């Protein structure tokens, strides 16, 4: 079988893979522009620049893309698939990109309705299907962290937590940032934040205690960002634990963040394993491409 | 008894009152600069500009100030008083401002230790002591909302919630803001946000549903800020309810925010009354001044 091109194309990152017919990643490139950085939204030109030399036009090499490239801000909007959904359900539901010379498709995101309303993901579904997890709870940490329950290879429930973005805006734009230096991860301060998150009071109170910890408990300016991270990740895990009650969780993501989540899960009494996010993306793109018959 | 000058001087607001010996507010000015807006931190000159004509130097007219003017960023740092604390406990603990011609004092803030660590307030204690509440639970909404339990005229417990600041930074700096217009308060959207806050999932999840409500539930751009406000105020009240279990709460603050809190309290099954924040500040300054013997 021929190779194909898989692209995990998000808001601020673009990771491209040339993958052979057996799922082996032959080449990878991680320096493409996120969709918001593509000039004039000319995604056709951007794709040529990212992976044009991989796409053998005469042979009909397929390109399969996942992530925000399929959103209203992307190339072609790929309507969400409802859950429950398995990798095989994407066959026939890939969004074709109109392109005169190339065979290009986009993986739809997923849509579900949880107890607090509707929820969506784009890109994470592909990582989930490439993670090797057929039954269990997975967590994909990030700007908008996703938690999903997988049963029999299907995503049956999921929820989003705005953890990474709340960290970024509080770090940069709130009074808490004035008590912080740029500094490397501080494991002890992170652990203090995780413990703080388990105290009564709720997140809006715990956030203020980042300030009082600096004023009154000797939390240093270098340690404060890790403390804030611990408070937020601890809150996310406590809320997800209440919702999904997992005995163990597989964290799909990049180091060191995935490792921080694994530690935080352990502090919350949950066993944790990690899977590299880029491997999961490539694996999911391959699995969906094969099941959709894109490999010829 | 002579009149005195009371000033509620916070980070971004300054409210000055000329108050007679019976506690009657003779004049008020609300257009002074917050402490961060005082040029070169020359608070002596700023005070002269705000209320110099009220301070009859020969007579020894006293000036009593509360709020962030007593912080490290203010005029003179007034060390926090530990709780439990009553208005009478401030006598002898007011921080004198070195000034050759005027008698000026600053009300210390309060310091307590709750289940999630230390907590502080500056300025709200004065409003509490001027609210007329001797026993009960009060809420002072704002950038950093304060909740306090009052027993026998003493503040015995309190907690801070970063509700207003989280609203502001998420509104201005997060992806949620891209789904919002500047718009007047929308009572129906606010109520939807309050209900959302009561669903399972936790604040980090509920914040993301502000986005999905815009994408998938028809929440309009004009309604979205009120929905976000409802989510955050609803979360604050749920957390405070879990901590303090009040049957009723007195909200001390300005309209319309105090009224929004009263509605939110009712939705959470808690009876609510409101007290105007500026009246409470003037009343508290008078009560503390009288008990400290500043009225001659």
Oligomer: homodimer
Helix and strand element order of chain A? EEEHEEEEEEEHEEEHHHHEHEH
Distance between the termini of chain A: 6 Å
**Number of helices, where a helix is a run of at least 4 consecutive DSSP H or I residues of chain A:** 8
Strand content of chain A: 25-35%
Helix/strand-derived category of chain A reads alpha/beta
Shape of chain A: globular
Number of strands of chain A: 15
Model description:
The structure is a homodimer of 296-residue chains. Chain A is 33% helix and 26% strand. By secondary structure, chain A is an alpha/beta fold. In chain A, β7 (95-96) and β8 (103-106) form a beta hairpin. The longest helix of chain A has 21 residues, at 224-244. The first copy, chain A, is globular and about 70 Å long.
Give me some keywords for this one:
homodimer, 296 residues, alpha/beta, 6-stranded mixed beta sheet, 15 strands
Outline the fold blueprint.
The structure is a homodimer of 296-residue chains.
Chain A: E1 4-9, E2 14-19, E3 25-32, H1 43-51, E4 62-66, E5 81-82, E6 85-86, E7 95-96, E8 103-106, E9 110-114, E10 117-121, H2 124-129, E11 136-140, E12 145-151, E13 154-161, H3 163-173, H4 187-197, H5 203-216, H6 224-244, E14 248-253, H7 257-267, E15 271-276, H8 277-291
Helix pairs in contact in A: 3-6, 4-6, 5-6
Brief summary of the model shown:
The structure is a homodimer of 296-residue chains. Chain A has helices at residues 43-51, 124-129, 163-173, 187-197, 203-216, 224-244, 257-267, 277-291; strands at 4-9, 14-19, 25-32, 62-66, 81-82, 85-86, 95-96, 103-106, 110-114, 117-121, 136-140, 145-151, 154-161, 248-253, 271-276.
């Amino acid at each position: 079988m021929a190779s194909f091109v898989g692209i995990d194309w998000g808001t601020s990152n673009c990771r491209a893979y040339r993958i052979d017919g057996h799922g082996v990643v032959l080449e990878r490139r991680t320096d493409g522009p996120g969709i918001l950085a593509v000039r004039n939204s000319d995604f056709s030109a951007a794709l040529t620049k990212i992976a044009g030399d991989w796409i053998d036009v005469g042979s009909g090499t397929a390109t399969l893309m996942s992530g925000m490239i399929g959103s209203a801000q992307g190339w072609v909007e790929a309507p969400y698939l409802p859950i429950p959904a398995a990798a095989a359900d994407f066959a026939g539901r890939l969004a074709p990109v109109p392109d005169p010379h190339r065979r290009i498709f986009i993986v739809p995101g997923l849509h579900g309705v949880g107890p607090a309303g509707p929820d969506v993901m784009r890109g994470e579904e592909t990582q989930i299907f490439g993670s090797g997890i057929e039954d269990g709870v997975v967590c994909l940490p990030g700007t908008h962290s996703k938690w999903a329950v997988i049963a029999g290879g299907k995503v049956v429930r999921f929820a989003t937590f705005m953890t990474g973005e709340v960290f970024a805006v509080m770090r940069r734009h709130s009074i808490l940032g004035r008590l912080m230096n740029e500094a490397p991860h501080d494991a002890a301060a992170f652990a203090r934040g995780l413990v703080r998150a388990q105290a009564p009071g709720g997140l809006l109170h715990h956030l203020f205690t980042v300030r009082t910890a600096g004023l009154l408990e000797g939390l240093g300016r270098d340690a404060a960002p890790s403390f804030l991270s611990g408070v937020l990740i601890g809150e996310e895990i406590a809320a997800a634990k209440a919702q999904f009650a997992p005995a163990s969780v597989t964290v799909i993501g990049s180091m060191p963040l995935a490792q921080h989540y694994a530690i935080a899960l352990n502090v919350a009494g949950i066993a944790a394993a990690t899977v590299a996010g880029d491997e999961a993306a490539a694996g999911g793109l391959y699995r969906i491409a094969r099941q959709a018959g894109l490999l010829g």
